[in-house]
Design brief:
Residues 135-177 form the Zinc finger CGNR domain. By secondary structure, the chain is mainly α. 47% of the residues lie in helices and 9% in strands.
Length: 188
């Protein structure tokens, strides 16, 4: 079982918010199933408290990515360790949907926010210890501030998506072209 794959859950949660654009995809209990469905069984009841808890975890996870991208390794690790302590993993063997026995990191007794936070934190911790803290990134295409995991062979990823990479490259090209164009004389 590749536990580092659970780091994508941290990415999913953090990217529910785009502060520079004023967008938030995690506003009410109705927004939680879309976030949780790929990770675990959707709980029968999601409350406003679950949303508030997920939003607080999202802020702390963003701080981990931001600190890592800025080269502040100790800050990123301290924040992540705080999350791991607050949201411990509750491993359990399970077999469902005709699949063989496998490990779930958060049991059904754990609430939706706590379970998701535990899985995201553990995945991010495994990702960081297995592949290095420099694999956690924040998109450099402004105003996008999505986070990503750099899984490239040469650790060269700088954007969250091909779309952002293309947009940033076009902006650089246009800036270089403007810099080469002669400027009109303003004194005539």
């Amino acid at each position: 079982m590749d536990l580092s794959a659970y780091a994508e859950h941290a990415v999913r949660l953090v990217n529910t918010e785009q502060p520079a654009r004023g967008e938030d995809l995690l506003r009410s209990p109705d927004d939680v199933p879309a976030l949780i469905a790929p990770v675990r069984r959707i709980p029968s009841r999601v409350t406003d408290d679950d949303v508030a808890r997920l939003r607080a975890v999202r802020t702390r996870l963003r701080a981990v990515f931001t600190a890592a991208a800025a080269g502040r390794e100790a800050d990123a690790v301290a924040t992540l360790n705080g999350l791991l302590a607050e949201f411990p993993v509750h491993p359990r063997l399970t077999g469902h949907d005709a699949s063989p026995w496998h490990l779930h990191l958060a049991g059904d007794a754990v609430g939706p926010a706590e379970g998701f936070a535990a899985i995201a934190g553990m995945g991010l911790a495994v990702q960081l210890t297995t592949h290095g803290i420099d694999r956690l990134g924040v998109c450099r295409a402004l105003p996008c501030r999505n986070v990503f995991l750099d899984l490239s062979a040469n650790r060269s990823r700088r954007h969250c998506s091909e779309r952002c990479a293309s947009r940033a490259n076009v902006a650089l090209y246009r800036a270089r072209r403007r810099a080469r164009e002669p400027q009109p004389d303003r004194h005539t």
